[in-house]
Design a protein that fits this description.
46% helix, alpha/beta, single chain, 8 helices, 7 strands, Rossmann fold, 246 residues
Length: 246
């Protein structure tokens, strides 16, 4: 994995941060895309010299080709893309507006398509690569009050399979990680304010606990390494059994 170049979107916090740090620790030069300048630069300082902060709003689809081209020009190759950036909104179904639905799908789906398309163009030129999309339990089973998020993440899993089949001939593998309930600030805030939801999470998770961001990072790293060289089009839940728990 040494001397490879990776892009991690939404890499300045949570699961993206853990993934980018894992890459950097393994000697992979990692471009961390984030919208917030201070947070992204601070995260990259913590990750060390292999991290490069890239301040960019992925909703600006028309600017994505230039961003990818700049990385390619600087490095000569892009070997790994992790599509982690995403937003959520908890709201009753009948109260979600067209604009709110579109905003979440735009960020969680359209931007993933756009940056993947541009990176794939470069991967084809250099003989292949690995793309890992981040899904969610919201695509594994029905969750209330997150209709836009669930729709976008379900689409991501379908996109993963379609990309994998079409791109395998070019040496490009495409896989997907579906995190369960992982111990992050965002998850803690959501569960601590909803006791019933918290109890339900633990009651249907056979391992009886939440995962760590590092658990996701390890799985993503595996999907990008030669140890998974015969794996493509796979959606892998990392969830302590939550998706199959009773």
């Amino acid at each position: 994995m040494n001397k490879k170049t990776a892009i991690v979107t939404g890499g300045n916090s949570g699961l993206g941060y853990a993934t980018a740090k894992k890459f950097c620790d393994q000697g992979i030069k990692t471009y961390v895309i984030g919208r917030t300048k201070e947070r992204t630069e601070k995260a990259c300082e913590e990750m060390g010299p292999n991290a490069v902060a890239l301040i960019f709003d992925l909703t600006k689809l028309d600017e994505i080709p230039q961003i990818v081209q700049k990385i390619y020009d600087d490095e000569g190759h892009i070997d790994i893309l992790v599509n982690n950036a995403g937003i959520n909104m908890k709201k009753p179904f009948i109260e979600v507006t067209d604009e709110e639905f579109e905003r979440i799908v735009h960020t969680n789906l359209f931007s993933v398509f756009a940056i993947s398309r541009e990176v794939v163009k470069k991967m084809k030129e250099t003989g292949g690569g690995s793309i890992v999309n981040i899904s969610s339990m919201a695509a594994q089973y029905g969750l209330p009050q997150v209709i836009a998020y669930s729709s976008s993440k379900t689409a991501i899993e379908g996109m993963t399979r379609a990309m994998a089949v079409e791109l395998a001939q070019f040496g490009i593998r495409v896989n997907c990680i579906a995190p369960g309930f992982i111990k992050t600030k965002m998850t803690a805030k959501a569960l601590d304010s909803d006791a019933d939801r918290k109890n339900k999470v633990f009651s249907r998770t056979p391992m009886g606990k939440m995962g760590l961001p590092e658990d996701i990072a390890d799985a993503v790293y595996f999907m990008c390494s030669d140890e998974s060289k015969f794996v493509t089009g796979t959606v892998l839940p990392i969830d302590g059994g939550n998706s199959i728990g009773f």
